[in-house]
Each structure stands twice: as C-alpha cells, then as structure tokens.
Design goal:
There is one protein chain. This protein is mostly helical. The protein has a single domain (about 15-190), classed as Rhomboid-like fold (Up-down Bundle), CATH 1.20.1540. About 65% of the residues lie in helices and about 0% in strands. It is built from 7 helices and 2 strands, in the order αβαααβααα. A two-stranded antiparallel ribbon has the order 1-2. It is globular, with a radius of gyration of 19 Å.
C-alpha cells in the first residue's frame, strides 16, 4: 500500500523563484539597451540626442533614457559584461532589489551628472549603472553587517577596483561625472535599502 502526502515547499524553491525573477529583469534591462542601439544605428544615431544634456531642463529626460543609449556597439559591449556580472550578483536578491538599486542609481546618478557635467554636453551610456552596481555591492555588506556580502564586495574591488578608479579620472570624451555620481548613488542605495540587516534581540 502506498501513501501520498502534499509536497512541502522549501525555502530553496522560493529562493530559486526570486533569483529567477531578478535574472529575468536583468535580461530585460540589457535587452532594451541592445534593442535601443540597434534602432539608433538604423537611425544614424538619432536617439543619442536623448541623453543627459547638462543643466538643460529638457535634458532631464536623459536621466531615464541615457543608460539605454550608447555611442556604438563597441561602447555597448564594453558596458554589457560588467553590467551583467555585477547585476547578476544583485539579482540574486530578487527582481525587487535589482529594480530598486537600478532606479536609485539611475535617478540620483543621472541628476548629479546633469548638474555638474560641462555645459552643452550630452552624456549617454550605462557606465554610471556599472559604477552604481559596483559601489552598491561594495557598500551593502557594511550596512547589512553580513560577512558573505562583505566578501562579495572585496571580490568586486579585486576584480574591478583599478578600472573603477581609472574611470574617475578626467578623460576627453569620458563622463567621469557619470561614473562618480553613479558610485555615490550606489552607496546611497546600499544605505537606503539596508532594511534586512540582522535585528538585535531585546534582552
């Protein structure tokens, strides 16, 4: 005689669903960047005008659109690899967390870029997001007081540390302002979203 009992849901299945949702959102974000560049190429770069135009009220639209626009496929490819790698680490915490970090970095980093970039310049590209994701991963372990997250932050520094520091140096045609404010926004995101830190037990 055999017996059947209802299958029990484990914490692992829930985690798998959460991770899957985060990765799907990441694929969507990167996919939109590639689709935008394909359309932009077909239109001879006509979409690039919708980047962040410094201190121009109309240029504020670029705060949202700039991360999805690139100066050719070479520019896009150089941003895609670190964005996917760092984004995947954030996506392990779920789609909601990835969306929140992306939104904070996009808005705060974009406004900072809009404020201090040289006049009459247009800033485009996802490198601000890359710097924001990296800074978030480095800082979140400190705010959450979790050793595993601290170790991830150390790994990010070891792999991308020199490139991140180099991206903050002024260079012709490179928006160090976008990199700087993206990183600042990433640290702020880690602080704002540090709501899952271990609670102290009342004694």
């Amino acid at each position: 005689m055999s017996f059947q009992t209802p299958a029990r849901r484990t914490g692992r299945s829930v985690d798998t669903a959460r991770i899957g949702g985060g990765l799907k959102l990441l694929v969507l974000l990167v996919g939109l960047m590639w689709l935008s560049e394909i359309v932009d190429t077909a239109m001879n770069g006509a979409l690039d005008q919708y980047g962040i135009i410094s201190r121009d009220p109309e240029g504020l639209l670029g705060v949202v659109t700039a991360p999805f626009l690139h100066l050719g496929f070479g520019h896009l490819i150089s941003n895609t690899l670190p964005l996917v790698t760092l984004g995947a680490l954030i996506a392990l915490s779920g789609a909601a967390r990835l969306f929140a970090v992306t939104a904070i970095v996009t808005v705060i980093g974009g406004i900072g870029t809009w404020l201090i970039s040289p006049p009459n310049t247009i800033t485009i590209g996802a490198s601000g997001l890359v710097f924001g994701f990296a800074a978030y991963l480095i800082a979140r372990g400190i705010f959450n007081r979790r050793l595993s997250q601290v170790l991830v932050g150390v790994l990010v520094i070891m792999v991308w540390g020199s490139a991140l520091l180099g991206g903050l140096l002024p260079q012709d045609g490179i928006s160090w302002q976008g990199h700087l404010f993206g990183a600042v926004a990433g640290v702020l995101a880690a602080w704002i979203l540090a709501d899952d830190r271990p609670k102290k037990r009342a004694g």
